[in-house]
Specification:
By secondary structure, the protein is α+β, with helices and mostly antiparallel strands. It contains 6 helices and 14 strands. The longest helix has 20 residues, at 153-172. The radius of gyration is 19 Å and the shape is globular. The two termini are 28 Å apart.
């Protein structure tokens, strides 16, 4: 299991919720999405946006599940997101990746639900950028992969990794990209990795720096003198997402004091992820019906601040969309994590 990229405590929480929601027929599908820089011509993008907007209703959490199994929820929605709740004794929050010591809990914190309004970026993809919002969305991304590619880790690394590396070089203008891991998630019962339903950021300042030393120890001192980022590339593997879309917050709307470092304890070392407190003024977005030819870029860390002086790091989470139809396909997705230099 990855030290920082796939926190056990988040996955454990999600799996428990998944079983609970499945039992109640509510937890059917998830779509992880983020915003966009488009790989289409301006004319084509405008036409697609106009076509999409005409069929994007404005809905709230009072909406109920649609009875058409092919239905793709779109437009504004109000849904419950799970935020950080601190330990009752005021202790520093922690999670044990493996079995904890005798008499010590697996983790010492919990979560609390808040209803939030989540806007759809479909048709507005070009309004959002990594450098301003810490997320972007790409359309019409070519790929030589097939569904079978993702049944084998070796094929993912051999076929898909080079595509992701090239995509990041083109989209960020970076000089170098190092892909350090990936996770395939499935919403089906019993899946080893389910979508994460807890607001979080995969990295903190300290753990991002540690990543560079961990993967490139001989070059780290020099690399850290220049701009470096950690960016996740998210993709659907089985068609447009109908259930559990991915919500992501505009980075500039999230204050630094909303972030809470969580010790991620291994037998031989301690990493760190970030949980997020609910604060007023957070702006939340999702990308409806993300398909296989689309990609979401999530910037988890950037060593440089934006031109407005704001930090760029994007809280994100899968969420239960109350409009998801009965019988919808269960989401399958992959996220690849990358160190991006320059």
């Amino acid at each position: 299991m990855d030290e920082i990229g796939d926190p056990f405590w988040i996955v454990l929480s999600c799996q428990r919720e998944l079983a609970s929601y499945n039992n109640n027929n509510k937890y059917k599908d998830r779509a992880e999405m983020a915003t966009t820089t488009t790989i289409t011509s301006t004319a084509a993008a405008a036409a697609a946006a106009a076509a999409t907007q005409t069929q994007t209703p404005t809905l709230t959490a009072t909406a109920t599940a649609h009875d058409d199994a092919s239905y793709i929820p779109r437009g504004l929605v109000t849904a419950s997101l799970h935020f950080y709740k601190p330990p009752s004794d005021g202790a520093k929050p922690f999670n044990y990746v493996e079995k904890p010591p005798e008499g010590v809990p697996q983790r010492n914190f919990s979560n609390v639900e808040h209803d939030v309004q989540i806007n759809d970026i479909r048709g507005r993809e070009s309004d959002f950028t990594l450098d301003r919002h810490a997320f972007s969305a790409l359309q019409n991304v070519p790929s030589a992969t097939t569904r079978a590619t993702f049944d084998s880790d070796s094929d993912v690394k051999r076929i898909y990794y080079p595509e992701v590396e090239q995509l990041l070089l083109e989209q960020t203008g970076a000089k170098r990209v190092l892909l350090f891991d990936h996770t395939i998630r499935k919403a089906s019962p019993g899946a080893s990795r389910a979508p994460v339903t807890f607001v979080h950021i995969d990295q903190t300042d300290g753990s991002s720096r540690a990543r560079v030393f961990h993967h490139l120890p001989d070059e780290a001192a020099e690399l850290l003198q220049h701009r470096y980022r950690i960016i996740n590339v998210w993709r659907s593997l089985n068609g447009p997402v109908q259930q559990h879309p991915l919500a992501f917050a505009d980075s500039s709307s999230v204050p630094d004091d909303a972030m809470v470092g969580i010790e991620h304890r291994y037998p031989d070392r301690t990493g760190e992820t970030a949980a997020v407190r609910k604060t007023e003024g957070m702006k939340w977005w999702y990308w409806s019906g993300v398909g296989e030819g689309e990609r979401i870029l999530l910037e988890c860390f950037d060593s440089e601040s934006g031109t407005d002086g704001a930090r760029r790091r994007v809280p994100h989470t899968a969420f239960v969309d109350p409009r998801s139809p009965e019988g919808a396909r269960e989401r399958e997705s992959i996220e690849v994590r990358a160190l991006v230099f320059g």
